[in-house]
Amino acid sequence: MAKWRIIGLLALIGVGVGWYITKPAPLPPDALDGLTADTANGQIIFAAAGCASCHTSEDGPPTLLSGGRTFASDFGTFVAPNISSDPVHGVGAWSDLALASAIMRGVGENGAHLYPAFPYTSYNKAELQDVVDVIAYLRTLPASDQPNAPHDLAFPFNQRIALGPWKFLFAGQDFVLQDAPTPELIRGRYLVEALGHCTECHTPRNALGGLDTARWMGGAAHSSEEGRIPNITTAVLSWSEGEIAEYLKSGFTPDFDTAGGEMAQVIKNTAQLSDDDRAAMAAYLKAIPPVAE
């Protein structure tokens, strides 16, 4: 009997430790203290982070963040929520701290884990000031009373409790490119790995949906369309830094082809950045390790 009591006690301790390290962890209450929002910078962060690309409807204006766009995956179909300033169907009633916790920690206003279809695994590397700024800009945009639609996920993926262990395994905050010796590369790394969350599409994933960092930017299967999302490391992408920067501005390739599909939406965002920012993103892409096809 004593042995089984010890085993039971150890099992309870294990469950308790597991729950503690995987429970939702919003930002601390004083995280935003002393930060004053700059809506002009927030508009730039809004573009860099691609908010409109996911949270507008297929045919809606880019400032009406009514949600509804669907994203197919191996785990089911996710539906982007209304993040407009509407206080009922959007996030107008959320505090700045609650919104920042959603963006950087993947924790909803109700304290539950959010699904990583929302790329907080990239946004968790963002500067708090930029997050405060983009929240302030979001509040200036029109409200939409479009109700949110539920995700269409099969069991067990519809159980949010499993997201705690997933975050523990895959939601690290370290940059993948560790060696960034110049201000340009530091800026490019920030734009690509954090705000732009480019890797969420261009890096393959393992069976649990975590990014395979050994094949960083090495291309991935397309979840909702035929074909593949391309490898954009120097093993395949031979464009110069200037050609990459021009593509991010105009959508034109060196061969005078144009960006299409989802990348066309990305270009709408990167075209709003400065020439220096696009050059920094290009420098970053030339600096990451090549990944063979």
Automatic annotation (TrEMBL):
| One Pfam family of this chain | Cytochrom_C
Alphabetized GO MF terms: electron transfer activity; heme binding; metal ion binding
The alphabetical list of record keywords is: Heme, Iron, Metal-binding
Record-linked InterPro entries = Cyt_c-like_dom, Cyt_c-like_dom_sf, Cytochrome_c-type_DH
Q: Which residues form the Cytochrome c domain?
A: 37-142, 183-289
Q: Which PANTHER family match?
A: ALCOHOL DEHYDROGENASE CYTOCHROME C SUBUNIT (PTHR35008:SF8), BLL4482 PROTEIN-RELATED (PTHR35008)
What protein is this chain from? Cytochrome c
